[in-house]
């Protein structure tokens, strides 16, 4: 499906598919897909060797759309890969590089890490992780599109500029484009950005607002299908 993403018209579809598919890869890496619910999921958090102690199960259940059992399974997978209870950006990049060994995923991983690091403290805790996953897996269409917009809005000023989208597109191209499609021209990222703005920038003011982004995405059948890929994953 990632290979097919490049054949879909519009950078917005490529980017959203990558958010969905790379998050799916992350969950598989953490052992959260094809998991066995019989492996003592009733156990509570084992916190004796963890530096960062997550909030209580009941509180996390109230703040997310996961059940207690789902949170226990998520925590077990997170703790197995991040024994300290948090992951910093360099470790996140190392984990993420295993998903795309054919390219350089460091910049895209940086952008994705920033989206998960909601407290902007340089680390992603279990709470950060499940809050993000709750939106991606269980959020409404608007919730998921808001999350994707926040990923693209690099300076968090409420709008996406061509410069920001070019940075995103170059990171995607570095991660998979130049290696999967070696015949692509060097100006391909900029061409995708122009296509993105032609479709999304409704009032032609040179920036894409959250309202324009959501309205355009909802009219795109490919994006709406990608939004449903995570339904009932766990």
Automatic annotation (TrEMBL):
Say where the protein is mainly found.
Answer: membrane
PROSITE patterns given for it?
EF_HAND_1, EF_HAND_2
Q: Which GO terms describe its biological process?
A: regulation of potassium ion transmembrane transport
- GO CC list: voltage-gated potassium channel complex
Q: Which PANTHER family match?
A: CALCIUM BINDING PROTEINS, KV CHANNEL-INTERACTING PROTEIN 2
A single Pfam family, by name? EF-hand_8
Protein's name in the database: EF-hand domain-containing protein
Which residue intervals define the domain EF-hand in the entry? Answer: 104-139, 140-175, 188-223
Signal peptide location in the record? Answer: none
Q: Which InterPro entries match?
A: EF-hand-dom_pair (IPR011992), EF_Hand_1_Ca_BS (IPR018247), EF_hand_dom (IPR002048), Recoverin (IPR028846)
Q: What keywords are assigned to this protein?
A: Calcium, Cell membrane, Ion channel, Ion transport, Membrane, Metal-binding, Potassium, Potassium channel, Potassium transport, Repeat, Transport, Voltage-gated channel
Q: Which GO terms describe its molecular function?
A: calcium ion binding; potassium channel activity; potassium channel regulator activity
Family membership noted in the UniProt record? Belongs to the recoverin family.
Q: Which domain of life is it from?
A: Eukaryota
**According to its UniProt record, where is this protein located?**
Cell membrane
Question: Does the keyword Membrane belong to this entry?
Answer: yes
Among SMART domains, the record links this protein to:
EFh
Q: Which organism is it from?
A: Amphiprion ocellaris (Clown anemonefish)
